[in-house]
Amino acid sequence: MKSVVTTVVTAADAAGRFPSTSDLESVQGSLQRAAARMEAAEKLAGNIDQVAQEAYDAAIKKYSYLNNDGEANSNDTFKSKCLRDVKHYMRLVNYCLVVGGTGPLDEWGIAGQREVYRSLNLPTAPYVEALTFARNRGCAPRDMSSQALVEYNTLLDYVINSLS
Amino acid sequence: MLDAFSRAVVSADSKTACIGGNELQSLKNFISEGNKRLDAVNTIASNASCIVSDAVAGMICENQGLIQAGGNCYPNRRMAACLRDGEIVLRYITYALLSGDASVLEDRCLNGLKETYTALGVPLQSTGRAVGIMKAASLAHINNSNTEANGGKRFRKMEMKDGDCSAITSEAASYFDRVISALS
Q1: pLDDT exceeds 80 at position B151
Q2: CA–CA separation, A75 vs A53, rounded Å?
Q3: Nearest alpha-carbon partner for A6 in B107, B111, B87, B16
Q4: Domains (range + CATH), chain A
């Protein structure tokens, strides 16, 4: 999985050399920024149920026709699956914050996303609304430090762009 | 290839759980102790050729048959191959130490190594002994505990801040042990 360390090691291995000073410098750089990401990951992990629930509620509020008969949010099974999907994205964001790259989202969230939603006849706009709500809801320093919030919002924007 | 962070992600994903609490705490330790790790990698990389040649020389000292006709380090061509392999093993250990996970060492170095050596007729016990000497030298370098009596003319002490390096030392030792057990 792609991260600063694995990129550095892959490059060093391709050249057949020991980790050089510049390799160590780039790892050091990513470690310095990592504290903010860990903070965001910790706060998100602690509140993921509420964050997902609020985001899901906001999406259903905006697209209330989804509750009508035959729509994607019309019965309890569908409702719980919608909420689970939103939570799934938040969990992948948590992983990306830990890794320091978009690898988990790319590999487990975005790859094949469009095809799945199309074949299940699901609209992507409500997901965009849910994730946008989550992004706008975050507030520094109430929820986390501003640097942590920047890292968190960047990843939410990344998912939103992939869906829209 | 995984590092300490992506290893945590892969194991959390298998439980569909978020990463928080204890796992995050060990990653935070990884970050706050990061400079020790970088110093350890740097000290091994900077002294690599010394560590490798010393280990191969020590291995031969203990088993002179290796450099007599028919031995596996005779002639120079095979001795050179031996030095090269020592350096490759040490290089992958520095990669593992840098990423905090053994997957790069396992996937790119140890996978099939024993079978290759058996097929080529390389004595596994001698190889294991050379890795053992590299382990002792590397750990001494990481702790800066090498002495002039051990080092002789090639004695060298790196300029590093002293501190408690027991965690990174035992982690490095585990990678060397992994190589030794893969070869036996």
Answers
A1: no
A2: 17
A3: B107
A4: 34-163 (1.10.490.20)
The angle at the Cα of A72, spanning A66 to A75, to the nearest 5 degrees, equals 90
**Hey, of B2, B7, B9, which one would you mutate to test binding to chain A, going by the most A CBs within 10 A of its CB?**
B9
DSSP letter (8 states) at residue B144: T
Q: Which residue of A has its CA nearest to B95?
A: A9
Number of residues in chain B: 184
Most B CBs within 10 Å: which of A20, A30, A31, A98, as the mutation test of the B interface? A98
Banded pLDDT at B158 (limits 50, 70, 90): confident
Question: Which of A104, A113, A111, A108 has its CA nearest to residue A2?
Answer: A104
Domains of chain B: 1-32 (no CATH), 34-182 (1.10.490.20)
Cα distance from B115 to chain A (closest Cα, Å)?
22
Closest CB to B13 among A6, A17, A108:
A108
Q: What is the pLDDT of residues A68-124, one digit of tens each?
A: 888 888 889 999 999 999 999 999 999 999 998 888 999 999 999 999 999 998 999
